[in-house]
Specification:
Largest interface: A-B, 12 and 20 residues
CATH class of chain A: Alpha Beta
Radius of gyration of chain B: 16 Å
Helix content of chain A: 25-40%
Helix content of chain B: 10-25%
Oligomer: heterodimer
CATH architecture of chain B: 3-Layer(aba) Sandwich
Strand content of chain B: 25-35%
CATH topology of chain B: Rossmann fold
Shape of chain A: elongated
CATH class of chain B: Alpha Beta
Structural class of chain A: alpha+beta
Largest sheet of chain A: 3 strands, antiparallel
Largest sheet of chain B: 9 strands, mixed
Strand content of chain A: 25-35%
Distance between the termini of chain B: 12 Å
Number of strands of chain B: 11
Number of helices of chain A: 2
CATH superfamily of chain B: Class I glutamine amidotransferase (GATase) domain
Order of helices and strands of chain B: EHEEHEHEEEEHEEEH
Number of domains of chain B: 1
Shape of chain B: globular
CATH topology of chain A: Mth169, Chain: A
CATH superfamily of chain A: Phosphoribosylformylglycinamidine synthase subunit PurS
Number of strands of chain A: 3
Radius of gyration of chain A: 16 Å
Number of domains of chain A: 1
């Protein structure tokens, strides 16, 4: 059993209005050293598989459902890997 | 000409579309459930506005996998008219029947008002009763209507006259190149964020949407008789 966290964000070339608004708000709080905020979402997914099969499943569900590749991109990390 | 209005869980403009076509235009229309996997006998299909599947994940992302969508794709590929307004437009992009996608409005707000539009292309089966570059006004009501596609796709859309409606004065949502509605390359699939079905009777204060349905019926009848 493997638990993965899949992160989905806009591609860097796509304007992120939420991130922009949050950055401006952080500046009004006085944190001028904060230069950029990108908002995204994550999915914690438990998969009854290990290793390469997990990578294949993540790729397929990301491509078919979780990510709109017109404007989004994704990464993932393995949180738990129980053999 | 027989028309299907698809009803997804969370559709809320299905009755508006049905009545615009049926009561106002006298067309032969049926409601068709998202669970049906067959659209045999229909000459055109309409995807209504609303919040299918609660807009979970992304607007239109779940509806795209509804059983009926396989039949909608088949109709589109056969060249039959396919129309989506608002959530229907979002579903058409998620299903890959139209390029690009719809993002959250730049303002982060749900925008509900009547906006001026330019009819950019009146050479489609949905817009033949409008004048080229005609200014009309239609209601919009959405939070995720900011059209996005990469530069290459946008150039390609313009080169092939696929931009059908543009926001004419202000841009209400941040759509790139002020895009409010596009067709596929073949011109038989139209998606738009504005709601023509809410502007079909004088008592509603606006009839600018009526000619879209009349264009479709006129051209659709001609096609059925071919």
């Amino acid at each position: 059993m493997t638990k993965v966290r899949i992160f989905v964000t806009y591609k860097p070339s796509v304007f992120d209005p939420q991130g922009d608004t949050i950055t401006k708000t952080i500046h009004t709080l006085g944190y001028d050293e904060v230069k950029d905020v990108q908002v995204g979402k994550f999915f914690d997914v438990t998969i009854d598989a290990n290793g390469d099969q997990v990578a294949a499943t993540v790729k397929e569900i990301a491509e078919k459902l979780l990510v709109n590749f017109n404007m989004e991109t994704y990464t993932y990390q393995v949180l738990e890997d129980q053999q | 000409m027989k028309i299907a209005v698809i009803v997804f869980p969370g559709s809320n403009c299905d009755i508006d579309l049905y009545e615009a076509l049926s009561s106002v235009c006298g067309a032969d229309v049926d409601y068709v459930s998202h669970k049906q996997d067959n659209l045999t006998g229909y000459d055109a299909v309409m995807l209504p506005g609303g919040f299918s599947y609660g807009d979970y994940l992304r607007a239109g992302a779940i509806a795209r996998f509804a059983p009926v969508m396989g039949a909608v794709v088949k109709m589109a590929n056969k060249g039959k008219p396919v129309f989506g307004t608002c959530n229907g437009f979002q579903i058409l992009t998620e299903a890959g029947l139209l390029p690009g996608g719809l993002k959250r409005n730049n303002s982060q707000k749900f925008v509900c008002k009547t906006v001026p539009l330019e009819v950019v292309n009146n050479q489609t089966l949905f817009t033949s009763q409008y004048q080229e570059h005609e200014r009309i006004a239609l209601p919009i009501a959405h939070a995720d209507g900011s059209y996005y596609a990469d530069e290459e796709t946008l150039d390609d859309l313009e080169a092939h006259h696929q931009v059908v409606f543009r926001y004419a004065e202000e841009n209400p949502n941040g759509s790139l190149r002020n895009i409010a509605g596009i067709t596929n390359r073949q011109g038989n699939v139209l998606g738009m964020m504005p709601h023509p079905e809410r502007a079909v009777e004088a008592i509603l204060g606006n009839t600018d949407g009526l000619r879209l349905f009349k264009s479709l019926l006129e051209n659709g009848h001609a096609k059925v008789e071919e």
